[in-house]
């Protein structure tokens, strides 16, 4: 089943990335850039690189899906091994395969933190998007939303549980709005 759901991301004015709420839980440098993405090439000529960290926790999303530990680990593993991109919102479901959104963020690494039961994802904002850098740094944009294919089950209360997740993108979502 293809689903999208919201999480959170921010970039603090002191240059540290962290997850919403505005506490620095993970320094971007603590997340290895393991994805096969040429970070130097992506950032070529950027005199003001903007690095972000997104947090995707185990638990209930704002769209009322429960992300199991396995689903969150799947997200971290995919980004760590293959990388991913973020667009400015999701592609409409009927346009998937026909639209190519501009890359807003290149996700270059991720790890699953057992203690916090969350994936922490490291990315760089596209150098050609100075307005986006400003929006992230000022926390006008402070959320990410997963988009991908989930295997789902239900819990004892009949609510949706994502038992595994094949990430397509980890997109930006405007403040106070879920992914679509």
List keywords for this structure.
180 residues, mainly beta, 6-stranded antiparallel β-sheet, 5-stranded mixed β-sheet, 38% strand, globular
Description:
The longest helix has 14 residues, at 69-82. The chain is mainly beta and 180 residues long. It starts with a strand and ends in a 7-residue tail after the last strand. The strands form 2 sheets. Strands 3-2-4-9-8-7 form a 6-stranded antiparallel β-sheet. The chain is built from 3 helices and 11 strands.
Give a short overview:
It is built from three helices and eleven strands. The chain has helices at residues 39-42, 69-82, 130-137; strands at 2-6, 8-11, 17-18, 51-57, 59-60, 66-67, 84-86, 105-113, 118-125, 143-154, 160-173.
- Summed up, the helix count is 3
SSE order, as H and E? EEEHEEEHEEEHEE
What is the CA–CA distance across the termini?
Answer: 15 Å
Which class do the helix and strand fractions yield?
mainly beta
**Structure summary, number of beta strands:** 11
**How much is the average pLDDT?**
83
Shape estimate:
globular
- As a whole number of angstroms, the C-alpha radius of gyration is 15 Å
Stretches where pLDDT is under 50 for at least 5 consecutive residues are 6-24
Question: Largest sheet, order of strands side by side?
Answer: 3-2-4-9-8-7
Portion of residues in helices? 10-25%
Query: What portion of the residues fall into strands of 2 or more residues?
Result: 35-45%
């Amino acid at each position: 089943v293809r689903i999208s759901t919201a999480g959170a991301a921010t970039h603090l004015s002191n240059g540290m990335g962290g997850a919403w709420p505005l506490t620095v839980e993970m320094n971007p440098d603590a997340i290895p850039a393991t994805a096969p993405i040429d970070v130097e090439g992506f950032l070529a000529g950027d005199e003001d690189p903007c690095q972000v960290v997104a947090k995707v926790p185990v638990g209930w999303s704002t769209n009322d899906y429960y992300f199991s530990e396995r689903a969150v680990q799947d997200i971290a593993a995919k980004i760590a091994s293959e990388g991913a991109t973020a667009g400015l919102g999701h592609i409409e479901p009927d346009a998937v395969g026909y639209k190519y959104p501009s890359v807003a963020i290149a996700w270059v690494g991720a790890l699953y933190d057992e203690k916090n039961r969350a994936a922490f994802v490291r990315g760089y904002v596209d150098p050609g998007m100075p307005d986006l850098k400003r929006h992230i740094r000022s926390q006008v944009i402070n959320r990410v939303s997963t988009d991908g294919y989930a295997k789902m089950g239900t819990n004892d209360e009949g609510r949706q549980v994502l038992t595994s997740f094949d990430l397509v993108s980890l997109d930006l979502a405007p403040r106070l709005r879920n992914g679509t």
